[in-house]
Amino acid sequence: MRALIPLTIAAAGLAFVSASPAEATGAIKCKAGPQSGWKTQAALKAKLVKEGWTVRKSKVDGGCYEVYGTTPEGDRVEAYFHPVSLEKLYVARRGEVLFRKEGY
Amino acid sequence: MRTILNKKPTFWLLLALPALLLELAWWQGRIDTMDMIHPTGEWSARLMIIAMMLGPMAALLGRRPWLDWLLARRRAFGVAAFGYAVLHLIFYLIDMGNLDDILAEWMAPGIWTGWAAMLLMLPIALTSNDGAMRALRAGWKRVQRLVYPTALLTLLHWFWVHNSYAAALVHFAPLIIIWTLVLIKKSIKTPMKAGV
Predict the structure, then answer these.
(1) pLDDT of A86
(2) Which own/partner pairs from B154-158 qualify as long-range (CB within 8 Å, at least 24 positions apart)?
(3) Looking at residue A18, what is its pLDDT?
C-alpha cells in the first residue's frame, strides 16, 4: 500500500502530461477511399456558399471534411461532409448533435 | 539560481508561459482564434486539477518538501486556472464575434456548463488573497469549496462540447484516483467497528 500510492500518483501524472490535445473530435468516420478520389475542399466550400452557408474553416477529420461555419438557417455549427459525394453527414452545435445521417 | 527559482514572480511567469506562447502564436497568425479556445480551456482545467490534488496528496503522503513547496503555491495554481478560463472566454467571444450567435447557443449542454463554471470561479478567484481570507474568516473556506461544483461543471462542459469523453477523463482521472486513495487510506485507518 505504501509503495502503491506514489506509484499511482506517478502513473496518473504521466497520463496527465502525455494527454494529447484532442483537436480531432472524430465525431464520425467516412471511409471514403484514397484521397485521390476526393473532391477538393474548395469545391465543398463553393457548394456550401451557394446553398447559403458561411464557411469559417474546413479541414479533414475522421476521413471526412469537417466544416466550421453557419448554416443557411443561421446556426453556427460544426458539420461533416463526405469527401467524395460532398453529402452532409453530421451537424453539431458545440457537441449537441443537430443532424446525423442514418448509418453514420 | 535556487533563490530565483523559489521567487514567487518566477513561478507566476512559469504559470503564464503556456499563455504567452499561445498568444504569441495567435498574434503571428500561426493559430486561428477558433483554435485558441481549446488549449486555453485545457490549461485552465489542468491547473485547477493540480490545485485540487495538492490537499489530498498531503493527506496521503504526509509532509514532503516538494509537496510543501507546491502547497505554498496552491493559490497561484488556482488564480492561474481562473486566468486561463478568462482567456478561454475571451477567445470564445472573439471567435463568436456577435451577441446573436452567443445567445443562440448558450443553452447547449456544452455551453451553459462552461458559463456556469466561469461564474462559480469568479468568487473563488476574487477571494484568493490575504485580505479576503482575513475578512471572511470561516466563510473563506466555504467560498473556496465552490471549486468542487466548478470542477464537475468543467468536466461536463468538456464532455459535451466535444461530444467525446477520452481527453476530459484523462485529465480528471488523477483527481478521481487520488480521492479514491484518500478514501481507502481513511477506511484502513478507521476500520468500521461492529455494533457501535
Answers:
(1) 96
(2) B154/B44, B154/B45, B154/B48, B154/B113, B154/B114, B154/B117, B156/B109, B156/B113, B157/B110, B157/B111, B157/B113, B157/B114, B157/B117, B158/B41, B158/B45
(3) 53
Q: What are phi and psi of B145, to 5 degrees?
A: -70, -10
Q: Are B35 and B62 in contact (CB under 8 A)?
A: no
Instruction: Name the pTM for this structure.
Output: 0.84
Q: List the 29-68 stretch of A: residues with Cβ below 8 A of B.
A: 56-57, 68
**Global ipTM:** 0.73
Which residue's entry shows cell 453539431?
A: A92
Nearest chain B CA: its distance from A60 CA (Å): 15
**In the predicted model, what is the mean pLDDT of residues B105-120?**
95
Q: How confident is the model at residue B151 (pLDDT cuts 50, 70, 90)?
A: very high
Q: Cα(A1)–Cα(A8) distance, rounded to whole angstroms?
A: 10
CA B124, CA B135: separation in Å to the nearest integer?
14
Determine contact, residues A78/A68, Cβ cutoff 8 Å: yes
Res. A13 pLDDT band, cuts 50 70 90? low
Three-class SS state of A37: helix
User: Which of A2, A75, A94, A98 has the most B C-beta neighbours within 10 Å, making it the best mutation to test the interface with B?
Assistant: A94
Q: Report how many helices (DSSP H) and strands (DSSP E) chain A contains, helices first.
A: 2, 5
